[in-house]
Amino acid sequence: MLQLPLVVTVQVDLVLVLITSLAFLTRLSWLSYPNAVVFDEVYYGQFVSLYVKRIFFIDDSGPPLGHMILALGAYLGGFDGNFVWNRIGAEYPVGMNVWSLRLLPALCGALCVPLGYLLALELKFSHVSALGAALLLLLENSLIVQSRFLLLESVLIFFVLLALFSYLRFQNSTSSSWSRYSWLLLCGVSCSAAVGVKYMGLFSYLLLLGVASVDTWSLIGDRAVSHLSVCVQCFCRVMCLLVVPALFYIFWFYVHLSVLNHSGPHDQLMSSAFQASLKGGLSRITKGQPLEVAYGSQVTLRSSASQPVPCWLHSHKANYPVRYGNGRGSSHQQQVTCYPFKDVNNWWIIKDPNRQELVVDTPPKPVHHGDVIQLVHGMSSRLLNSHDVAAPMSPHAQEVSGYIDFNISMPAQNLWRVDISNREAKSEVWKTILSEVRLVHVNTSAVLKMSGMSLPEWGFRQLEVVAEKTFKTHSSGLGWTVEEHRYGTSQEQKDREVELHSPTHIDVDRKISFWSKFVELQAQIHLIGNLVSWGVAHLSLLAYQLLAVIYLLRRRRGFKDISDGAWEQFVRLGCVCVGSWLVNFVPFLLMDKTLFLYHYLPALCYLHLLSPTHRRVLHVCILGVLLYVFLCYWTFCPLTYGTPELSASQLQRLKWRDSWDILYRRQ
């Protein structure tokens, strides 16, 4: 029976509410200031514009989820993608919603503070220690700067902390209900999101898998748990921590490719089939062209080895030199190369060796897998030829040429067998764009390929094409794809040249500018850390390492300074905090790339979580330390928020070390 009065009891962690409110205040205040492009906004902004316009692009620096999150904020704010991201310091136009553009990174950065507090509690810290860790994150100037602009570090840190918190919440749960696996599911999704934002998230994911593997191994050894329960729990962990992250990682790319369906500056780096699936660009060229390649077809052949630069089979009216610079001789026949630009000399005609006509029959006679063909160069009428003459740059391979009969004992060897490598049927028809073919030289069984070597001046620095005798059946780089295709209608050479010159293709600009160098400073925004909190963080790391050595040595000698439960907590703390610091810091030492301060921020967050744990050492001076952290934060606030504007002398006083770079704006 329902009993009155109805009473609802709600427990609110006021400390959590307070630090969350302060986090939103420090990250979201004056978010639209400065109203100008700051540092890497010039880089990420380009991708945001491409997303809003649904134009395909490739960013080699990482997967697409981070860009999609930034683009979502821009889209919600009504951004049309027309702003030109060409230099740091460029003023945003009056009608542009800068607040919305920077909102989602700021939200992620703000949520990192309460997440740090909750994560510390799951690591069995006291509420005072958890509050100390949260305050260090709250007052960290460098984290505030990275959160307030169109950047990805705050988003990465948010998902990594969320993944660790979710896993620890699952592991620490005393409930026997299967609902606790919702935390493990959230952990898997967060891991996938972290990797989807930046590949650096992979290291934290692998560390978490290591911790989960140890916990699972302990579960397997627990004889109090039934065999069925162990199997079910192991299955759930595998699904949540391995299968779900993989599926969501693929899902990020699915959304990415679904949204970006228009031709753009980078689609030339993709295969012909990929390009043809985009609106505009190659699809405009190939729209309405025949699907099946027939005898008499006029085609351009793109090499599958030409990545990331596209390259087409090409010939021109210039011969190989009689002798090369090293004294070796050549056939002195017409050069055949691979050319990385659209050109009329890229056109070839598929010829039936048993007939002379170079036009398509009615109905067309398609070319099948296994058929023997000849390839006639459209502009010069030379047949594609190979023979037992060493290639100019790759002497182990055969020379490929446009055959010229010099009335010497060098007969034509111009027959090629079509081998469709991705065929689904034995007698499959050669299809435009879809089929990848190997052209096998009938006389020598060598395969036509681009070697990747550049020819000297006499070859106009174009890429060498050879016929390779020794190859593996599934070796990459041996395939060619018909990209542009039309049925030839002109038998006479002059008429055919006019036909080949007809405007059936457009040039696609393959150049894209990423981010320009620093030109001028419009706002006094500097990425600078809180010196006191950084010092405390690294001293805490040193203290933890010293304590770990002391505890290990004394436990080895039979002395237990802390209980077994406290020791397990101490070890787990090291695995999570010190381990996460290592996996987010050490990889950058091995990378040959320019490093910035923000690369260290994910690692720094874990040291902030580690700092308040040594409360025995800091118990007396904890308030003093936090006071100094706040004073340092307040001192550098003008550099963090860009306001109030400082004079050159005031900026000079903030330069505490000669190695710091403080840039001054000329008035």
From TrEMBL:
Pathway: Protein modification; protein glycosylation
Gene3D superfamilies according to UniProt: 2.80.10.50
GO cellular component: endoplasmic reticulum membrane
Domain of life, per lineage: Eukaryota
Main location group: endoplasmic reticulum
EC number(s) from the headed UniProt entry: 2.4.1.109
Membrane-traversing stretches: 6-25, 62-79, 99-120, 127-144, 150-168, 203-222, 234-255, 531-553, 595-610, 617-636
InterPro entries given in the database record: ArnT-like_N, MIR_dom_sf, MIR_motif, PMT-like, PMT_4TMC
Pfam families from the UniProt entry: MIR (PF02815), PMT (PF02366), PMT_4TMC (PF16192)
Transmembrane helix is among the record's keywords: yes
Membrane topology category: Multi-pass membrane protein
Protein name in the entry: Protein O-mannosyl-transferase 1
Species per Swiss-Prot/TrEMBL record: Oryzias melastigma (Marine medaka)
